[in-house]
Structures are given as structure tokens and as C-alpha cells.
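Support request, please re-run this one:
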Amino acid sequence: MRKLAIAAPIIATLAATAAFAADPPVADPDLAPFRQAYTAGTGLSYVVVKDDKGERIYRYGDASRQAAQKDVRGFMLFTCNSPHVFVAKNPPDKTALLKARVVKSGDPEFADLDAKYLAGCKNPLVKSALPKTK
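Re-run finished. Output below.
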């Protein structure tokens, strides 16, 4: 009985520690407009980030969208050959995302961004994001 009395506070402390460690991260409220645009819709979409070097075009799809819906810590975007994780708590990434705009299929500039993305891409496996016409 004495062993249980000693073990009870230790078990309670461990349980409380595990509960605090399991708290999910909270979405950054400053990035709420970007998160809303990023996670809405289906299919391939583009993200345009303007900085002092010019304009960078990334794209992402449903898998990245679903990951962002489950995990608020970051966003997975792709250039022609590589993935880029933008972490919400990383100040340079957050600054870039605050300036970014999401362009979805059907938006007026989608075809132009698709052409620019493909023009800078020498990877033959990367195809157009424009919907196929029948």
C-alpha cells in the first residue's frame, strides 16, 4: 500500500506532463487569410511570393493542402525540382507568407503563372497545371 502512495504522485506528474506535451500547436492568427486561401479548393494551385529579388512562383496540390489542414506549423510549396517548407514560426518564412497570394485554377492569372512556372522548369516530369480540355 505504501508503494502505491509513493507512486501515485509520480504517475500524476507524468500524466500531466504528457498531457501538456500533447497540446497541438495553435495556428498563427496573422497567417489566417493565407491559411484560408491555401487550404481551400482542390487540385494544383500557385503561390506567388514577392520580395526584393522579384517574384517567386511555387505550386502545391491536394496532399499539401491536407497536410496544412492537419498541422498548422507550416506549408509545403514546390518549385520545379524541390519542396520548400515554410514554417509559420520562422520570421523570414512568416514575412514571405504574409506577402504571398494564392492563385487557383479558374483565377484570371492562373494560365499565365502556369506558363511562367513551366518556362523556368527543365524537369520533363513536371506538367502543366491547366485542366485538360476534352
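The first strand starts at residue 45 and ends at 51. Residues 2-21 form the longest helix (20 residues).
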